[in-house]
Write a structure and sequence with these properties.
alpha+beta, Glutaredoxin, Glutathione S-transferase Yfyf (Class Pi), Chain A, domain 2, five-stranded mixed sheet, globular, binds glutathione
């Protein structure tokens, strides 16, 4: 059997100059990519899986008795891998991974090379994922390199990424962190003045500014895909495009006033009204076209791409900070029906699904890009749900009904996977890194720290917890493999709690093993103002706030991982939600009072 687990090799990269390559690998090693799930390595290892044998020795410097566990009833990583590969989703993900090495379908945030069909066979419908053609797009034909943010969180990068995908223009990807979550490597800041993302290299010449890049690519590759920008002599469409792009700027301004300004009372009401009126104008603009798209053609245009990258961020942010559910569906009526049809049309496109984040990720990342949002009291309950408080990330999980956000990868017309198996695939493939990453929960905070909390590149893992985290994660992965839905039936969106056998095995090793460590230095616990059943923790030296008790305990390691699963960086939205809920399942077992 072939194994797909990768080792910790970070040296493989496809940079074209040796100096940069060195710096790049150094950067990767240092920052650990702020994520445990993605590997820059292009290798899919075929060797036997090698992982540390669990030990029973106590952690030397740990202040808890549970840094190491005394028993290990979880299947090995090798067994888990075999089990997963025997499932339809597991085997598909493995095959997709191999195809991805060659630049082939399907579109995915991990892809570093994308190749498409020969240009004369290119379908004129960019909503279909193009099939690769071995005869075209050999490496020499890949003229474009896209420099985009590593995590897939930058809306401008997403715009160019989507454009290339929808056009079917072959391209390579180089991932670079945004300032909000990492230090840019020197080779990039030397290459791009100011270090801004995105940037594109076309035939070795560098270009910046997302809209300029799209115009340039449209001129350079007129034969690829459907036209995304109206031709110069189409005055009507050009006028419409200009008007719609101006309206999009108005929408951005209205969104900013509503969410990122600390208004109250009448001023808040006014900005709320302006925002909704602007959206109604957008909805109206969509109403006047034949299909779902802004310029009326049978495929998205530059205007659609410009809007979707903003709308994707507007939707969760107005819900989280203002309690405004723009996709509200009271069974009979949606608030903005044409906007809704347009969103659904985008969500049916594989390339868009591959590039989109989930609500939680956006909420965690947006403040680092746009500044803090201001919450109104009425939004607090919904905000808590999005943040995974109040039991919203617990099993059983109904991925259709429990959330205000859609999981379009589970729609009947998508090539849907079992999201639990997608999550298991990512954990198994990168398990050594995932374990090390989770051990940061009981380690030292990173210095310097970065704005985006999902990233903490300089945090140090507490090695004492390695074995205990490893066992815990194997129980989680086992539960993921045995749980979830195979997507074969419309109504199987419920991820059930693990069966008794799996629970019993996990309890044997983990029940009551959270530890009883004190809060770390400088941290204090406070009841939440609005809901005293909730406790938050405040560090009076750094000002940091967290909902997870900051202790050096095993449960903190798993909570640390849970709170940093980001989309699309680590996995898709439904998979991320399934993993978070399974991590909570194991955290609950660890926190059980009576050790079994
Ligand atoms: N007008 C530029 C805006 C680009 C931009 O603001 N990029 C941000 C990321 S969202 C950036 O690179 N900021 C520096 C950083 O985050 O590292 C474009 O459309 O490309």
């Amino acid at each position: 059997m072939e194994f797909f687990v990768r080792d910790n090799d970070n040296t493989d990269n496809n940079l074209d100059d040796g100096v940069s390559a060195l710096l790049y690998s150094d950067f990767i090693t240092k920052t650990f990519l702020s994520s445990a799930f993605g590997s820059p390595s292009k290798k899919v290892f075929k060797s036997r899986l090698v992982f540390a044998t669990p030990t029973t020795e106590g952690g030397a410097s740990s202040n808890t008795a549970t840094a190491s566990l005394l028993t290990d009833h979880a299947p090995s990583w090798e067994t888990l891998q075999e089990q997963l590969l025997a499932t339809p989703t597991g085997s598909r993900w493995y095959q997709d991974d191999l195809n991805r090495e060659k630049g082939e379908r399907p579109p995915h945030a991990d892809a570093l090379l994308r190749r498409f069909p020969a240009k004369d066979e290119h379908v004129d419908d960019n909503t279909k994922d193009p099939q690769p053609d071995e005869t075209d797009n050999n490496d020499a034909n890949v003229r474009v390199t896209l420099y985009r943010d590593h995590a897939g969180w930058c809306p401008y990068c997403q715009k160019v990424w989507l454009y290339l995908e929808l056009k079917g223009i072959p391209y390579r990807v180089q991932k670079v962190p945004m300032n909000a979550y990492g230090d840019k490597p020197a080779w990039f800041t030397r290459k791009v003045d100011g270090g801004k993302l995105p940037a594109v290299e076309l035939d070795g010449i560098l270009h910046v500014e997302s809209l300029d890049i799209i115009h340039l690519l449209e001129e350079t590759f007129p034969e690829y895909g459907p036209a995304m920008i109206p031709s110069d002599n189409d005055d009507n469409s050009n006028r419409k495009m200009t008007e719609l792009l101006e309206l999009e700027l108005e929408l951005q301004r209205a969104w900013f006033s509503l969410v990122f300004y600390p208004t109250e009372g009448e001023a808040l009401q006014k900005s709320n009204q302006t925002f909704l009126e602007t959206l109604a104008r957008v909805d109206n603009a969509l109403k006047s076209t034949d299909g779902p798209w802004f310029l009326g053609a049978n495929a998205p245009s530059l205007v659609d791409i410009q809007y979707i990258t903003q709308m994707e961020r507007i939707l969760p942010s107005v819900l989280y900070w203002k309690g405004l559910d723009l996709r509200q569906n009271n069974n009979t009526q949606v608030l903005f029906p044409h906007l809704e049809a347009w969103l659904l049309a985008f969500e049916s496109i594989p390339a868009y699904r591959a590039s989109r984040s989930d609500y939680y990720t956006h909420i965690m990342v947006i403040p680092s890009q746009n500044g803090p949002g201001y919450m109104i009291p009425h939004a607090k309950k919904i905000a808590n749900q999005i943040s995974g408080l109040e039991g919203s990330w617990s099993l059983p999980l109904n991925l259709r009904d429990d959330f205000l956000e859609p999981f379009p990868e589970l729609n009947k017309d998508s090539n849907r996977d079992n999201p639990c198996h997608e999550a298991a695939y990512k954990v198994i493939k990168n398990h050594a890194k995932v374990v090390e990453f989770a051990c940061r929960g009981a380690g030292e905070q990173g210095r310097p720290s970065f704005h985006a909390e999902l990233a903490d590149p300089y945090a140090e893992a507490n090695e004492d917890f390695r074995q205990a985290v490893d066992v815990s994660l194997r129980h989680v992965t086992h539960a993921l493999i045995c749980g979830g839905t195979d997507g074969s039936n419309d109504n199987t969106f419920v991820v059930e709690s693990p069966a008794a056998m799996i629970l019993d095995a996990a309890r044997k090793d983990l029940s009551g093993k959270a530890g009883n460590d004190e809060l770390r230095e400088n941290w204090e616990a406070y009841p939440d103002d609005d809901d005293p059943t909730l406790t938050y923790y405040w560090n009076y030296e750094t000002g940091d706030v967290t909902w997870t008790p900051p202790t050096k305990q095993l449960d903190t390691c798993l909570a640390y991982l849970r709170d940093r699963v980001g989309v699309p960086r680590d996995m898709g939205p439904a998979a991320a939600m399934s993993l978070r809920a399974h991590l909570n399942w194991v955290i609950d077992i660890l926190r059980e009072q009576d050790s079994k």
